Hints:
The chain is α+β, with helices and mostly antiparallel strands. The protein has 2 domains: 2-156, no CATH class; 168-190 and 224-350, Nucleotidyltransferase, domain 5. Helix content is 42%, strand content 20%. The chain contains 9 helices and 14 strands. The chain has helices at 13-41, 47-54, 66-83, 193-206, 210-238, 249-252, 258-264, 266-280, 328-350, and strands at 2-7, 102-105, 110-113, 116-119, 122-125, 137-144, 150-156, 168-174, 178-182, 187-189, 239-245, 283-287, 316-318, 325-327. The strands form 4 sheets. It has a 5-stranded mixed sheet. The longest helix has 29 residues, at 13-41. The chain is elongated. The chain starts with a strand and ends with a helix.
Amino acid sequence: MKTLRLRIKDKHSSILNEMALEVNFVWNYVNELCSNHTKKTGKFFSAYDVHGYTSGATRDGLKIHSQSVQAVAEEYVSRRKQFKKLKLKWRSAKGSKKSLGWIPFKTSCIKVEESRLRYCGVWLGIWDSYGLSQYQLKGGSFNQDSRGRWYVNLWVESKVQEKKTGTKSVGIDLGLKEFAVMSNGEKIDSIKFYREYEGKLILAQRANRNDRVRAIHAKIKNKRLDFHHKLSNKLVAENSAIFVGNVSAKSLVKTKMSKSVLDAGWTAFRTMLKYKSHEAGVWFEEVNERYSTQTCSCCGSRQDSPKGRAGLRIREWACGECGITHDRDVNAAMNILALGHERLAVGISAV
């Protein structure tokens, strides 16, 4: 399964805003219903139990589809189990805690014709850049971004394609100075998208120009996504196996490097590589990069290698055993590639 995201034409925003308010109403009703039931009985409602309380809601004036009401209840129960809370946050349409518009639906709720999508008797114009007629739809949702623009996210079946090009394999070490260093020695410079617009963002925030702030954040996000998409497409096209280090953004965010770590977007990039590799028939693996910087990729020794935070300034070092001089990041990428090949061999033998 994969998700196709398409932009809805702005002229339909008003009707979707009204539907989103009704989704918020259903969510808040289910939130109150389930929390009260749990307080009284000590038991949790299932999605099936909630359906009995929401059935017939669309006949009493709600403009959203009845299956959308069910989808809201199912999503609520799923998130309540995930976060293990008595009550989840309310969905609000006003104030500082405003919830972005969201309208879930199931397959039978929608119909697609050319560049239009029908929901609850309303035809919505979309920019169909994927050719939806070739896909079998499995449901989805309408979602609003921070600037008030609406998108439709459609779940479709993804067919695994046979890999026709690319016979090489590559190990990738993700970082901050260089965004990615390949085991073949290629280095991809880190483009600091947030830093580029930080000055304009500060001015807009001080002037309380919230629309401008949202527009700048959107531009930063789009430029980062464009960079990630182009690089991931290139890697998938050129290689038959891709191995990436499992550097943890979650732990590094707690350090002084947090702004740069978030700006890099390692997790989003790895996610792109994973699903694109799956579609193209490329082997993808995240490997443990522990000690990859300190271990000599030729002999495996860790003598005289840079260690700890004090060793971060050392970009080149010579192995005390074999005497070979290493570029710190290229050496790490080569170790990631070697470990990936070991895991690949184990995976193939298991099959």
